[in-house]
Amino acid sequence: MNIVDIINKKRNNKELSYDELSFAINSYLNEEIPDYQMSALLMAICINDMTEQEIFNLTNIFIKSGDIIDFSSIPGVFVDKHSTGGVGDKLTLILAPLVASCGVNVVKMSGRGLGHTGGTIDKLESIPGFKVELDDEELMTQLKELKVAILSQSHNLVPADKKIYALRDVSGTVESVPLIASSIMSKKIASGADKIVIDLKVGKGALIKEIMSARRLANVMIKIGKHFKKEVVCILTNMDFPLGITIGNSLEVVESIQFLKGKRTSDVEKLVLEIGSHMVSMGKNIAYKEAYELVSYKLSSGEAYQKFIELIHYQGGNLKDMKISDKSEVIYSEQEGYITAIDALKLGNIAKHLGAGRESKEDIINYGVGIVLHKQINDYVKKGEGLLTLYYDDYIPDTEDVLSSYTFERQVCDQKIILEIIK
Ligand code: URA
């Protein structure tokens, strides 16, 4: 087999066989073909798309490239939740203990983030002492006792995706439905999930900007799920504006704690109830309505909060020692009206420049910096009222730049947080 023939075949929009895809992926993983040839193949896939069979084969090749976690020694169904990533997205911190408090096993293997703010693991590492690396024995013991663990992907999970994703990032080949679907689903399947809820973010602050592409991606991921006998629900959610009121690592942990203790913004609450109810309905094999009632009860009774505290302590975290920067500056509105848009991408980039996110893998995150929003979409603001507070260390963004993230109008706008549910 020859990589140039395989590239030419895909460029000519012909279907690649399992063996051809496997040869290309595994040769790249073994450093037998260079970046430029893999980039050419990825670009041909981006332009010409993939057939269903090619997508199933690619997912399978990805899964087989590394370890596959087996939780069969622990009773019960394992439900996983994945977010395609957004600004202020702290839902995993809330949902993992909440769903576990309903009696469903949840293991979240998460990554460190590249982009606006850290990933879930960075957020948890803002809690001093929190241990994100668990060996197999520690993980199994914790799951038997708590039903929940959040850990970094220290296992050798889907190394082929890891290497190819890094190349996609620098070769203009991230935005491709078959490549995104196989990348996400291979990691979920290899990490031992039986049932999967995907929070597919759509909008300015998301990887997927258009609803049509989101629908196609959702349908492809559901088909991959069926092929591998995994139930998948995709919840398409709005990422035109930041989620909740904080952007930044420690700040998002604090918001999650306040949420679990009862201080909630309606956007985060709607998403937590919707995603949580689907996870619990799948995990316990009960009707959605029954799951919704259980999830609401576990939140209001404080049991979800107790589970969060148990989880943090079990993994060594000490919430009392968390630090938020003591330097802060309020940005005041220069206009009056209803806020009808908050540019998630712009604020995300401001948070990154404050130090809350990484530009490159080597960057070190400053856990204590970030943004707290005092006003959300459709709130009325008077001239001179505080819009947000910046928590900073050695860099303060230009006020005009921050203010340009906001749009004001005379009337409220129609903004839904949950756009569609596809099963
Ligand atoms: N997230 C992933 O894990 N993979 C992609 O390709 C895109 C988003």
What ligands are attached or bound here?
A: uracil
Q: What is the count of β-strands?
A: 13
Walk across the major sheet and give the strand order: 1-4-5-13
The largest pleated sheet is described as: 4 strands, mixed
* Distance between the ends: 39 Å
Give the overall average pLDDT. Answer: 95
The helicity comes to 40-55%
- Total number of helices: 16
Order of helices and strands: HHHHEHEHHEHHEHEEHHHHEEHEEEHEE
Unreliable stretches, pLDDT < 50, 5 or more residues? none
What percentage of the residues does DSSP assign to strands (E)? 15-25%
Radius of gyration: 22 Å
Per the principal axes of the C-alpha atoms, what is the gross shape? Answer: globular
Topology:
Elements: H1 3-11, H2 18-29, H3 35-48, H4 52-64, E1 79-83, H5 91-101, E2 106-110, H6 120-125, H7 136-146, E3 148-152, H8 159-169, H9 177-190, E4 195-202, H10 211-227, E5 231-238, E6 246-247, H11 249-260, H12 266-284, H13 288-300, H14 303-314, E7 327-332, E8 337-342, H15 344-356, E9 370-373, E10 380-381, E11 386-392, H16 399-403, E12 406-409, E13 418-422
Parallel strand pairs: 1-4, 2-3, 4-5
Antiparallel strand pairs: 5-13, 6-9, 7-11, 8-10, 8-12, 9-11
Helix pairs in contact: 1-3, 2-4, 2-8, 4-9, 4-10, 5-12, 5-14, 9-10, 12-13
The structure holds uracil.
General description of the model:
- It is a single chain.
- The chain is an alpha/beta fold and 423 residues long.
- Helix content is 45%, strand content 16%.
- The chain has 16 helices and 13 strands.
- A four-stranded mixed sheet has the order 1-4-5-13, sandwiched between helices. Strands 6-9-11-7 form a four-stranded antiparallel sheet, with helices on both faces.
- The longest helix has 19 residues.
- The protein is globular and about 65 Å long.
- It starts with a helix and ends with a strand.
- Uracil binds next to α9.
